[in-house]
Amino acid sequence: MGCGRNNHDNESANCVCQVVRAIKDIQDNAVEEECAECTSCFNEPLGTLVSPSRRDPVDTRVFVLSTADGSPFHAFFSNENNACVSIYFRVEDVFDNCCATLRVLVPGKRDGGNFCPVNLVSGGDKCCIDLTKVCQVERFRASNDCITVDLSCFCAIQCIADVNLGICN
């Protein structure tokens, strides 16, 4: 039950579910088309979210989800010998009554030509996202970690970027 709703029967009442389904369709149908003028999660084709004139090949619409209290939803991903936290996701599948499999994306920044992961967790705090570190994120890499969620449990979704993670290769 997302955002105080008491009814799971009306799937169309959950806008987060509708947006994630739309993102999945856009990712699945990534083709060259005319660019859209405004930016939203519903922009088509894939690749027009951040820069409509950009025509780099992309396969992923990166997004974040917010919980009922407005905080970013997070999940863990494996990073060699330690576990890390991310708030960034790629939809892999949407099924049943608004459930989805999301791939956890590794947040990063540019370090010369290299990908440098950004640790989003507050210094000594093992549970809270440091929102100042979120602003450092410039790039994303696919992890091998996925999470299954009930989309009706979220109150907001924000699309961040269209990127090429090499998922379709």
What does this entry show, briefly?
The protein has 169 residues and is mainly beta. The chain has helices at 15-28, 131-134, and strands spanning 60-66, 75-79, 82-86, 89-95, 99-111, 114-117, 139-150, 156-163. It is built from 2 helices and 8 strands; from the N terminus they run αββββββαββ.
**H/E series, N to C?**
HEEEEEEHEE
Beta-strand share of residues: 35-45%
Kindly state the percentage of residues in helix. 10-25%
Q: Which runs of at least 5 residues are low in confidence (pLDDT < 50)? A: 32-36
So what's the overall shape? Answer: globular
Mean model confidence by pLDDT: 82
Number of helices: 2
Distance between the termini: 37 Å
Total domain units = 1
Over the alpha carbons, how many angstroms does the gyration radius reach? 16 Å
Supply the helix-strand structural class: mainly beta
Describe the sheet with the most strands: 4 strands, antiparallel
Number of strands: 8
